[in-house]
Sequence to fold (203 residues):
Amino acid sequence: MSASHTRWRPEAFVGGHPYLDFLNTGGGSTKARDALPFEDWADALHWLAMAGLASPAEQRRLQRLARGSDAGKALNRLMAQRENGYAVLSAVARDLAVPEAGRLRFENDIRLALQQASLPLFPGRQPAWQVDAEAAGLELPRHRLALSAQGLIADGLLPRLRECEACTWLFLDTSRGGRRRWCSMATCGNRAKARRHYRATAH
Fold:
């Protein structure tokens, strides 16, 4: 495994929901959405496994399925889904009008995933939509993430959705007062404190 495939550390998962963490893979340390995308298909699959959205066996199978341009095309579709999802939920987080074309695409991604999913019911277990990994093939990541977005909405979590004041990362504000400003105090919060300290002592 190359070094790029070990970069998904716990600090990359601060959104409070797997779908938000997925959207945050395209963020950066500023308001410019300038972070590199997944470097390749293997990198995306490693993130999916780290996020709990693919088992190790599924990760290996998806890597075996990818041949030549197929992996590149699947990765491009995944990135397009990510950027559209970010545009939609960033607008929601900032109380802005959601672009209609983006909303329709977001809705269609969820609808397509639901068409490929089943809802197993077992006594004593919370039901959840499931996509058949073999039938989905290389589209499994996209469908799993679309169902994760559907769950975020169905669970009534959008009123808690916020965008970091320093970067583009999205997160769920579960603080008691609902006044959380940073995706992470350890990163953006500390950088903001350092900037304030510098300005206060620079004169």
The chain is about 50% helix and 5% strand. The helical segments are 18-24, 41-50, 56-65, 69-93, 100-115, 133-136, 140-154, 185-201. Residues 1-5 have pLDDT under 50 and may be disordered. The beta strands are 117-118, 130-131, 161-163, 170-172.
